[in-house]
Design a protein that fits this description.
Blueprint (H helix, E strand, L loop, with lengths): L6 H4 L9 E2 L6 H18 L5 E9 L2 E8 L2 H5 L4 H17 L8 E6 L7 H13 L4 H13 L6 E8 L8 E8 L8 E12 L2 E13 L9
Parallel strand pairs: 1-2, 3-4
Antiparallel strand pairs: 2-3, 5-6, 5-8, 7-8
Helix pairs in contact: 5-6
Protein name: Small ribosomal subunit protein uS3
Function: Binds the lower part of the 30S subunit head. Binds mRNA in the 70S ribosome, positioning it for translation.
Family: Belongs to the universal ribosomal protein uS3 family.
Length: about 220
């Protein structure tokens, strides 16, 4: 029997790196819970800012929160006002949820120059179009054309599930263009899930983007 495997965890340690980078055996459970709750809150708070990834690095009494976005100006704000406001909100949430965060933590913002090559941003674009009441078939076709317009993208697949078009019965629709080899370990596949909130219910969105195969760098010869 075949099993559904998450494309990110399937390649973890081979092509993908950990999104939480720290080493602590004594407080492992506390740190893990804090990272999960912080990511969930940030995903809701920063919705619409096209956040592709949230990475957390911990050291001894320090924390670095890395936000990768295609809209850095919107996130940083004028003169860094947005970052300072976000820092205060995170401190307040950390107190309410009892998160293990140091008082002085760093927030780094990294700009993404090709947003159509990141599955999380593409999924957010699809969610925005669905919430604007655009037809889902038109959204699927337009999204595939935008993503495939990038040279580094070899294939893309977008799947929608729910009451598409306000239908009485939920269904599953998907569209694929190019190659998406999910069972090849060296295939660089970016995967993301998102939800579009509509009056008649949520619509689930899944995006797979294939960027070619990654091989080990050749070893230097003496």
């Amino acid at each position: 029997m075949s099993h559904t495997v998450h494309p990110y965890s399937f390649r973890l340690g081979i092509l993908k790196d950990w999104k939480s980078r720290w080493s602590q055996n004594k407080f492992y459970r506390i740190f893990l819970k804090s990272d999960v709750l912080l990511r969930e809150w940030l995903a809701k708070r920063l919705r619409g800012m096209y956040i592709a990834d949230i990475e957390i690095e911990r050291g001894q009494n320090e924390l670095n929160l890395i936000l990768k976005t295609s809209r850095p100006g919107l996130l940083i704000g004028r003169g860094g006002e947005g970052i300072e406001k976000l820092r205060k909100e995170i401190s307040m949430v950390a107190g309410k949820l009892k998160l293990n965060l140091p008082k002085n933590f760093k927030i780094s913002v990294q700009e993404i120059k090709s947003p159509e090559t990141h599955a999380k941003i593409v999924a957010q674009m699809v969610a925005e179009d669905l919430e604007k009441r655009m037809t889902f078939r038109r959204i699927l076709n337009q999204t595939l054309e935008k993503v495939m317009a990038n040279k580094e993208v070899k294939g893309v697949k977008v799947a929608l599930s729910g009451r598409l078009g306000g239908a009485e019965m939920a269904r599953y629709e998907w569209l694929k263009k190019g190659q998406v080899p999910l069972t090849t370990l060296r295939a660089d596949i970016d995967f993301a899930k998102e939800r579009a909130h509509l009056p008649y219910g949520d619509i689930g969105i899944k995006v797979w983007i294939y960027k070619g195969e990654v091989f080990e760098a050749p070893k230097p010869t003496n």
